[in-house]
Amino acid sequence: MLEQEAGPPIIRFRGLEKSFGDLHVLRGIDLDIPEGQCVSIIGASGSGKSTLLRVLMTLEHPTGGRVEVEGESLYTMKRNGEEVPANRAHIRRIRRKICMVFQHFNLFPHMKVLRNVTEAPIHVLGLSREEANQRGRSYLEMVGLSDKVDAYPAQLSGGQKQRVAIARALAMQPKIMLFDEITSALDPELVGGILDLLREIKQQGDMTMLIVTHEMKFARDSSDRVLFVDEGVILEDSDPQQMFTNPEHERTRRFLDTVLSEQA
User: Fold this and answer.
1) Which pLDDT belongs to residue 264?
2) Predicted TM-score (pTM) of this structure
3) Would the CA dihedral through 55, 60, 61, 64 be positive or negative?
Protein backbone atom coordinates (compact mmCIF):
# COMPACT_ATOMS: atom_id res chain seq x y z
CA MET A 1 0.00 0.00 0.00
CA LEU A 2 1.07 3.58 -0.69
CA GLU A 3 2.53 5.32 2.33
CA GLN A 4 0.09 7.94 3.63
CA GLU A 5 0.77 11.60 4.30
CA ALA A 6 0.73 12.93 7.85
CA GLY A 7 -2.58 14.09 9.30
CA PRO A 8 -5.98 12.46 9.61
CA PRO A 9 -7.57 11.24 6.39
CA ILE A 10 -10.71 12.91 5.09
CA ILE A 11 -12.01 9.45 4.08
CA ARG A 12 -11.36 6.21 5.95
CA PHE A 13 -12.68 2.71 5.25
CA ARG A 14 -12.08 -0.06 7.76
CA GLY A 15 -13.08 -3.64 7.03
CA LEU A 16 -15.69 -2.45 4.55
CA GLU A 17 -17.95 -5.24 3.28
CA LYS A 18 -20.80 -5.16 0.81
CA SER A 19 -22.84 -8.10 -0.39
CA PHE A 20 -25.88 -8.38 -2.61
CA GLY A 21 -27.38 -11.66 -1.52
CA ASP A 22 -24.73 -14.31 -2.18
CA LEU A 23 -22.65 -11.90 -4.28
CA HIS A 24 -19.74 -10.57 -2.20
CA VAL A 25 -18.80 -7.28 -3.91
CA LEU A 26 -16.50 -5.60 -1.36
CA ARG A 27 -14.27 -7.74 0.82
CA GLY A 28 -12.73 -6.06 3.84
CA ILE A 29 -11.62 -2.77 2.27
CA ASP A 30 -9.11 -0.79 4.37
CA LEU A 31 -8.31 2.61 2.87
CA ASP A 32 -7.25 6.10 3.99
CA ILE A 33 -7.48 9.10 1.66
CA PRO A 34 -5.87 12.39 2.71
CA GLU A 35 -7.65 15.67 2.05
CA GLY A 36 -7.01 17.15 -1.38
CA GLN A 37 -5.83 13.93 -2.99
CA CYS A 38 -6.98 12.93 -6.49
CA VAL A 39 -7.37 9.14 -6.57
CA SER A 40 -8.15 7.15 -9.70
CA ILE A 41 -9.77 3.75 -9.15
CA ILE A 42 -9.24 1.22 -11.92
CA GLY A 43 -10.15 -2.42 -12.43
CA ALA A 44 -12.30 -4.75 -14.48
CA SER A 45 -16.07 -4.33 -14.70
CA GLY A 46 -17.76 -5.90 -11.69
CA SER A 47 -14.69 -5.58 -9.45
CA GLY A 48 -16.46 -3.35 -6.90
CA LYS A 49 -15.16 0.08 -7.94
CA SER A 50 -18.52 1.80 -8.34
CA THR A 51 -19.94 0.10 -5.26
CA LEU A 52 -17.16 1.63 -3.18
CA LEU A 53 -18.26 5.12 -4.30
CA ARG A 54 -21.94 4.32 -3.84
CA VAL A 55 -21.36 3.21 -0.24
CA LEU A 56 -19.55 6.48 0.47
CA MET A 57 -22.44 8.40 -1.12
CA THR A 58 -24.91 6.35 0.99
CA LEU A 59 -26.61 5.00 -2.13
CA GLU A 60 -25.72 1.51 -0.89
CA HIS A 61 -25.56 0.51 2.76
CA PRO A 62 -22.48 -1.49 3.79
CA THR A 63 -22.92 -5.05 4.95
CA GLY A 64 -20.09 -4.63 7.45
CA GLY A 65 -17.15 -2.45 8.42
CA ARG A 66 -16.82 1.26 9.03
CA VAL A 67 -16.83 4.42 6.91
CA GLU A 68 -15.53 7.72 8.30
CA VAL A 69 -15.62 11.21 6.80
CA GLU A 70 -13.45 13.82 8.51
CA GLY A 71 -13.15 11.56 11.52
CA GLU A 72 -16.90 10.98 11.92
CA SER A 73 -18.55 7.62 11.38
CA LEU A 74 -20.99 7.85 8.49
CA TYR A 75 -23.28 4.96 9.38
CA THR A 76 -23.14 5.07 13.19
CA MET A 77 -23.43 7.80 15.81
CA LYS A 78 -22.97 8.23 19.56
CA ARG A 79 -26.04 8.18 21.79
CA ASN A 80 -25.76 8.12 25.59
CA GLY A 81 -22.14 7.07 25.27
CA GLU A 82 -22.93 4.13 22.99
CA GLU A 83 -22.46 3.71 19.26
CA VAL A 84 -25.79 3.15 17.52
CA PRO A 85 -26.96 3.13 13.88
CA ALA A 86 -26.97 6.66 12.50
CA ASN A 87 -30.28 8.45 12.01
CA ARG A 88 -31.18 10.28 8.80
CA ALA A 89 -30.17 13.69 10.13
CA HIS A 90 -26.67 12.44 10.99
CA ILE A 91 -26.18 10.81 7.59
CA ARG A 92 -27.59 13.83 5.75
CA ARG A 93 -25.27 16.23 7.60
CA ILE A 94 -22.14 14.26 6.70
CA ARG A 95 -23.29 13.52 3.16
CA ARG A 96 -23.48 17.26 2.44
CA LYS A 97 -19.70 17.15 2.26
CA ILE A 98 -19.86 14.73 -0.68
CA CYS A 99 -21.19 15.02 -4.22
CA MET A 100 -21.23 12.43 -6.98
CA VAL A 101 -21.32 12.69 -10.77
CA PHE A 102 -22.78 9.69 -12.56
CA GLN A 103 -22.21 7.96 -15.87
CA HIS A 104 -25.69 8.81 -17.17
CA PHE A 105 -25.92 12.44 -16.01
CA ASN A 106 -29.17 12.06 -13.96
CA LEU A 107 -30.43 15.53 -14.89
CA PHE A 108 -34.04 16.58 -14.32
CA PRO A 109 -35.51 16.57 -17.86
CA HIS A 110 -38.33 19.01 -17.04
CA MET A 111 -35.96 21.68 -15.62
CA LYS A 112 -33.81 24.10 -17.55
CA VAL A 113 -30.05 23.88 -17.12
CA LEU A 114 -29.73 26.66 -14.55
CA ARG A 115 -32.48 25.21 -12.37
CA ASN A 116 -30.86 21.76 -12.55
CA VAL A 117 -27.75 23.35 -11.05
CA THR A 118 -29.50 25.50 -8.42
CA GLU A 119 -32.13 23.17 -6.95
CA ALA A 120 -29.83 21.45 -4.45
CA PRO A 121 -28.10 24.64 -3.20
CA ILE A 122 -31.54 26.12 -2.53
CA HIS A 123 -33.24 23.12 -0.93
CA VAL A 124 -30.25 21.46 0.76
CA LEU A 125 -27.94 24.37 1.59
CA GLY A 126 -30.65 26.97 2.09
CA LEU A 127 -29.35 29.51 -0.42
CA SER A 128 -31.73 32.14 -1.71
CA ARG A 129 -32.80 31.87 -5.35
CA GLU A 130 -30.65 34.89 -6.17
CA GLU A 131 -27.56 33.44 -4.43
CA ALA A 132 -28.06 30.06 -6.05
CA ASN A 133 -28.52 31.56 -9.52
CA GLN A 134 -25.34 33.57 -9.15
CA ARG A 135 -23.42 30.51 -8.00
CA GLY A 136 -24.97 28.34 -10.70
CA ARG A 137 -24.09 30.78 -13.48
CA SER A 138 -20.48 30.96 -12.29
CA TYR A 139 -20.07 27.18 -12.38
CA LEU A 140 -21.82 26.89 -15.75
CA GLU A 141 -19.36 29.46 -17.04
CA MET A 142 -16.52 27.39 -15.61
CA VAL A 143 -17.67 24.30 -17.53
CA GLY A 144 -18.20 26.30 -20.72
CA LEU A 145 -21.99 26.40 -20.75
CA SER A 146 -22.87 29.97 -19.84
CA ASP A 147 -24.92 30.18 -23.05
CA LYS A 148 -27.08 27.16 -22.13
CA VAL A 149 -28.71 28.35 -18.89
CA ASP A 150 -32.19 28.39 -20.49
CA ALA A 151 -31.84 25.13 -22.43
CA TYR A 152 -33.48 21.85 -21.40
CA PRO A 153 -31.35 18.69 -21.09
CA ALA A 154 -32.96 17.22 -24.22
CA GLN A 155 -31.47 20.11 -26.20
CA LEU A 156 -27.91 19.27 -25.11
CA SER A 157 -25.31 16.83 -26.38
CA GLY A 158 -24.04 14.07 -24.12
CA GLY A 159 -20.89 16.01 -23.35
CA GLN A 160 -22.89 19.11 -22.47
CA LYS A 161 -25.18 17.10 -20.19
CA GLN A 162 -22.15 15.75 -18.36
CA ARG A 163 -20.78 19.28 -17.95
CA VAL A 164 -24.09 20.37 -16.43
CA ALA A 165 -23.92 17.39 -14.05
CA ILE A 166 -20.41 18.44 -13.01
CA ALA A 167 -21.50 22.08 -12.54
CA ARG A 168 -24.43 20.87 -10.43
CA ALA A 169 -22.10 18.94 -8.13
CA LEU A 170 -19.61 21.81 -7.89
CA ALA A 171 -22.40 24.23 -6.98
CA MET A 172 -22.80 22.33 -3.71
CA GLN A 173 -19.14 23.20 -2.97
CA PRO A 174 -18.43 19.76 -1.48
CA LYS A 175 -15.19 18.73 0.16
CA ILE A 176 -15.28 15.38 -1.66
CA MET A 177 -16.21 14.75 -5.30
CA LEU A 178 -16.94 11.28 -6.63
CA PHE A 179 -16.89 10.58 -10.37
CA ASP A 180 -18.26 7.23 -11.55
CA GLU A 181 -17.22 6.39 -15.13
CA ILE A 182 -18.40 9.80 -16.27
CA THR A 183 -16.97 9.41 -19.79
CA SER A 184 -18.31 5.91 -20.47
CA ALA A 185 -21.59 7.06 -22.05
CA LEU A 186 -19.95 9.72 -24.23
CA ASP A 187 -18.91 9.59 -27.85
CA PRO A 188 -15.11 9.22 -28.08
CA GLU A 189 -14.57 12.74 -29.41
CA LEU A 190 -16.23 14.22 -26.29
CA VAL A 191 -14.17 12.31 -23.73
CA GLY A 192 -11.09 14.53 -23.92
CA GLY A 193 -13.02 17.69 -23.07
CA ILE A 194 -14.52 16.15 -19.94
CA LEU A 195 -11.13 14.83 -18.80
CA ASP A 196 -9.63 18.29 -19.35
CA LEU A 197 -12.38 19.70 -17.12
CA LEU A 198 -11.50 17.22 -14.37
CA ARG A 199 -7.87 18.34 -14.61
CA GLU A 200 -8.99 21.96 -14.28
CA ILE A 201 -11.06 21.17 -11.19
CA LYS A 202 -8.06 19.39 -9.65
CA GLN A 203 -5.77 22.35 -10.35
CA GLN A 204 -8.14 24.99 -9.01
CA GLY A 205 -8.44 23.82 -5.44
CA ASP A 206 -7.85 21.28 -2.70
CA MET A 207 -10.98 19.22 -3.30
CA THR A 208 -10.63 15.48 -2.64
CA MET A 209 -11.53 13.53 -5.78
CA LEU A 210 -12.25 9.81 -6.24
CA ILE A 211 -12.53 8.88 -9.91
CA VAL A 212 -13.62 5.47 -11.17
CA THR A 213 -12.33 5.38 -14.73
CA HIS A 214 -11.24 3.25 -17.65
CA GLU A 215 -9.24 6.18 -19.06
CA MET A 216 -5.74 4.96 -18.25
CA LYS A 217 -3.94 8.02 -19.63
CA PHE A 218 -5.91 10.24 -17.29
CA ALA A 219 -5.23 7.94 -14.33
CA ARG A 220 -1.52 7.90 -15.16
CA ASP A 221 -1.02 11.59 -15.89
CA SER A 222 -3.50 13.40 -13.64
CA SER A 223 -3.86 11.35 -10.44
CA ASP A 224 -1.92 11.61 -7.22
CA ARG A 225 -2.60 7.95 -6.59
CA VAL A 226 -4.09 4.93 -8.35
CA LEU A 227 -5.97 2.00 -6.81
CA PHE A 228 -6.39 -1.28 -8.66
CA VAL A 229 -9.49 -3.12 -7.41
CA ASP A 230 -9.93 -6.81 -8.20
CA GLU A 231 -12.78 -9.03 -7.01
CA GLY A 232 -13.73 -6.69 -4.18
CA VAL A 233 -10.27 -6.03 -2.73
CA ILE A 234 -7.70 -3.30 -3.31
CA LEU A 235 -5.00 -5.42 -4.84
CA GLU A 236 -2.62 -2.55 -5.51
CA ASP A 237 -2.34 1.04 -4.22
CA SER A 238 0.51 3.17 -5.53
CA ASP A 239 1.56 6.36 -7.26
CA PRO A 240 0.82 6.42 -11.01
CA GLN A 241 4.45 5.99 -12.04
CA GLN A 242 4.77 2.78 -10.03
CA MET A 243 1.36 1.46 -11.09
CA PHE A 244 1.91 1.92 -14.82
CA THR A 245 5.61 1.11 -15.15
CA ASN A 246 6.24 -1.55 -12.52
CA PRO A 247 3.05 -2.93 -10.94
CA GLU A 248 3.55 -5.26 -8.04
CA HIS A 249 0.99 -7.92 -8.92
CA GLU A 250 0.72 -10.12 -11.99
CA ARG A 251 -3.05 -9.55 -12.03
CA THR A 252 -2.47 -5.80 -12.29
CA ARG A 253 0.00 -6.30 -15.12
CA ARG A 254 -2.47 -8.44 -17.07
CA PHE A 255 -5.25 -5.91 -16.63
CA LEU A 256 -3.09 -2.97 -17.71
CA ASP A 257 -1.66 -4.85 -20.68
CA THR A 258 -5.17 -5.59 -21.91
CA VAL A 259 -6.64 -2.14 -21.35
CA LEU A 260 -3.64 -0.19 -22.62
CA SER A 261 -3.50 -2.26 -25.81
CA GLU A 262 -7.20 -1.50 -26.40
CA GLN A 263 -6.64 2.24 -25.85
CA ALA A 264 -3.45 2.45 -27.94
Assistant:
1) 63
2) 0.92
3) negative
